[in-house]
Amino acid sequence: MAITEVQKTAIKSVLHDIYSYTSSPGGRGRELHKMFDELPDRTTWKEYYAVIPEPRCLDGVKATFEKGAFNDPLELFSDISLVFSNALHFNEEGSVIYKDANILKALLARSWAAQPSLPQPPATPPPQNKSTEDDTKIEPDIDMASPNHPTMDDGERDPQGDDIIRRLEATLPKWSGPGDAGWMTSVSGDPHARYSEIVNAIKTYRVQSTGDRPAEALEQLREQTDIQDLYHKDPISLSIIESRSQTRFYQHPKDFDVDMFRLFEKGRRWYEAGSTAYGRIILLQRLYHHLTTTSSTTSTATTNFASISAGPGNAKPLRSVESTSEAGVTTFRIPSKDRDFQEEAHFKGTAYKTGDYVHLMNPDDPAQPIIGQIFRIWKPTGAPLGQVSLTACWYFRPEQTVHPANRQFWENEVFKTGHFADHAIEDVMEKIACQFTTKHIRGRPRPPNWYPGWPLYVCDSRYNDREKVFVKIKNWASCIPEDLRKADFMAIHPFEAIVWPRKLGSPFLKGVKGPGGIGDSTEKAEGEKILGGGTGRKRPRRAAAASTPAAPAANPSANIATEPILQSQPLPPQAMPQRRTDERTIVTAAGGLPALGPNPLMETLPHETVRHFDRDPVSGQLFWFPGPPLDKSPLPNIHTPRHSLKYLAFLAEKERGSKSNVAGQADRVGKRGHPED
Questions:
Q1: Which residues pair with residue 345 across a beta bridge?
Q2: d(Cα 258, Cα 487) in Å, to the nearest integer?
Q3: DSSP letter string over 137-204?
Q4: Does the pLDDT value for residue 529 go beyond 80?
Q5: I want to staple 626 with a disulfide (CB 3.0 to 4.6 A). Which of 51, 154, 191, 589 is the partner?
Q6: Cα separation, 362 vs 274, whole angstroms
Q7: How far is residue 267's CA from residue 149's CA, in Å, rounded to a whole number?
């Protein structure tokens, strides 16, 4: 639908309001729009383009409008709003440009709403109501690990930290189970015959590419349910459900649906996350959703029944495939056209709201579900109530990134991206949680965001998969939906003391497969606040000039001279030894891994030794120095003239000779003063 002439006039009025707004009444103050007229220079502001996926500027949007390239007024509104949203996301809160962006964004909303000919942007769903927290305490369970449950081979961590986590989680409320909404309500034909058909379809399904029968993973589960933190303990298995279907045990479709839900949850908790058997459980769960859905969404076996064609690391943005035959999957902003937004959606007894983290079906690898945060819940305009979809922001796993072989990751670390994808509600496998590092080291999320036994991830950085750049997150509020930024998002039950997660090496060194790989990447930190005023843009750190003296060696004792130096000539910068000062490890002090030989053996200090020494308050690593502390006593003044021993002996002889001469002269004078009689 083209923009009408009346709407064009109204849009010009909105643009005039923005371009004419000044910081003082009467048009005498500073024109706020000037900071947003043009995009930052790509050479000077490389970090801006690494952080902002879709840059916009006012002059660019205005030029596009004047060319008639917008087909809908809301597209223009979205682009202008994106100009100010990008500024709020990139710049420090409280800076001049941050304040100006807030003012102009509010002005845009007011001016647009004042034009009756312009369609109004969709209303933002209100923030979810805080539910009453369950303060019920549960007595600690001493036996925290089931001997029959498979465990993961974790990295090293202070055992005291594990004890702190166990003590806290033992006192947290446990999940009471799913609710009453979102289940199957009707089945066409004979319901019990349909239940048997569904069970048989799951039992006999084979993966087309390999011929594997995923149901073997379900059949290997024991009927007894003794998994810790699982909300139900009743025996459940595929054979039990099949028998109940044949004996017409189920009185309502919901009863059958609940049993299948319990079976898949039991399988997800029993098998190790990321394993082949775990992936088979996820695949069969998505197949079950496909068999029982009432919506018109299409999914096929070629995508493992997911509603999207590709997952993280393989998916292409919609705009990048316009001229190719590839199917676009993700966007860098949330679409709003022809969508009716909802506050929440109920699916399989669980209520999903904006801000919730979920596991979504990964069409490329069921064993690695997509980690996503819900930003919008919606249904197509005019679609039935049951056809619900959600827009989620993707978080990448380490194996979905490109990184150097020596990079380390927190245990269960993921990386926020700028990719947004639309998923059918049937893609949702389960509710999970993801904490930013500042909260993860201090405690565990409060209900209903997380319960013991649910998957929990930690996020410390963003990842730009186009530029292969990791950007450490400084403004955590910018990573979550705007409606939730004013509240204490994902409040925690605090630990007794800070507990740092384990550090693990690259998953590719352990044989893990993924769309990422070993390669060069860039590590960056979000810009620091500019002192002394300025626009508040976050400037990238620049490398030191070539004439800057090199940093001193890590062990200053190696540079102490054994002879006095009267005058020294500085070495040219290229001749001075260079050593990284950000790594203080034995490997670095030894000259790097190549200096240790082809098969270096490295061991960690035992806990009983480590506990006697201090740790770095930021990284949690043990303080270690390659040399003893230096004597801080002042060195002698090396510019004071020194005399050789030979010269000092000469002076001594001269002094003695002078004394002898004086004595001889005195004797002669005495003799002349007392002549012999």
A1: 352
A2: 34
A3: --PPPS--S-TTS---------HHHHHHHHHHHHHSPPP----SSSS----SS-HHHHHHHHHHHHHH
A4: no
A5: 589
A6: 12
A7: 11
Ranges 196-210, 248-262, 271-285, 316-330: which has the least confidence: 316-330
The secondary structure of 542-581, three-state, reads CCCCCCCCCCCCCCHHHHCCCCCCCCCCCCCHHHCCCCCC
392 exposure class (CB count in 10 Å sphere: 0-12, 13-18, 19+): buried
Amino acid at 273: A
| pLDDT on residue 596 | 64
The reply to whether 16 falls in a domain is yes
| Cα 316 from chain centre | 20
Give the H/E segment covering residue 96.
helix 96-113
pTM above 0.85, yes or no: no
CA distance 39 to 263: 54
What are the structure tokens assigned to 417, written together? Answer: 């991206």
Average pLDDT for the chain:
79
Residue that the structure tokens 């800057």 belong to: 548
In three-state secondary structure terms, 370 is strand
Judge whether residue 635 has pLDDT over 80.
Answer: no
Q: Which residues of 27-50 are buried (b: 16+ CB within 10 A; e: fewer)?
A: eeeeebbebbeebbeeeebbbbbb
Domain region containing 18 = 5-113
What is the bridge-based pairing of β-strands 370-380 and 339-342? antiparallel
204-234 burial by CB neighbour count: b if 16+ within 10 A, else e? ebeeeeeeeebbebbeebeeebebeebeeee
In a domain, 292, yes or no: no
Dist CA 658 CA 645 (whole Å): 20
Q: Are 419 and 330 in contact (CB under 8 A)?
A: yes
Q: How far apart are CA 486 and CA 60, in angstroms?
A: 31
DSSP structure string for 381-443 = TT--TT--EEEEEEEE-GGGSEE-TT--EETTEEEEEEEEEEEEGGGEEEEEEEEEHHHHTTE
The count of domains in the chain is 1
> Is 41 within a domain?
yes
96-127 pLDDT, tens per residue?
888 899 999 999 999 999 999 998 886 544 44
In a domain, 83, yes or no: yes
